[in-house]
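Q: What does the assembly look like in three dimensions?
Context provided by user:
Components: two
Sequences:
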Amino acid sequence: NAGVTQTPKFQVLKTGQSMTLQCAQDMNHNSMYWYRQDPGMGLRLIYYSASEGTTDKGEVPNGYNVSRLNKREFSLRLESAAPSQTSVYFCASILTYKETQYFGPGTRLLVL
Amino acid sequence: QKEVEQNSGPLSVPEGAIASLNCTYSDRGSQSFFWYRQYSGKSPELIMSIYSNGDKEDGRFTAQLNKASQYVSLLIRDSQPSDSATYLCAVFLEGTYKYIFGTGTRLKVLA
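A: Here is the predicted structure of the complete assembly.
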């Protein structure tokens, strides 16, 4: 099992450009999450999907959209990137309610 | 606003000593707690989960939970340089699918 995978590993964008971060898990997990991690700020929840077909906002959703494409895949889209979105983005998944989260390797995004 | 508080550190301990990491949380209804270790440039990985008051031991690691005081801690015995990392405390919010993370404590184990 690959666990949780994320692509790309690293990306540089110019202000105003758009991109989609991809996340996939092969553990048959039901719920998936997107976090961003900034120095001194810890992990902050952007969006989550409790189950296939549902998505909900987290703590910092502005400037982002998500799609739960199927049970395996959960993508995060930046429509018009801003320098404030420079961060490391982690995808995570859980099998069921309140269980351990498993994290992907992260995507490092730099917006110039 | 639900919060999880951790001392950012760095906490420096000599090799072989006990490292004690602390976390407090604001949501009195929380029942599930997690400790993750994160090496620089890597993703968080689970060390321990704890759901009941008291101690839970796994090898060199012991998690301690006191729900009345809204306090969860992680003890690392016989600390090794390889334990040097940032330790994140996470709390699951009952009735949601959300986890709240502390900002992490950076641990440095000195050889």
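Follow-up: Chain B has no helices and eleven strands.
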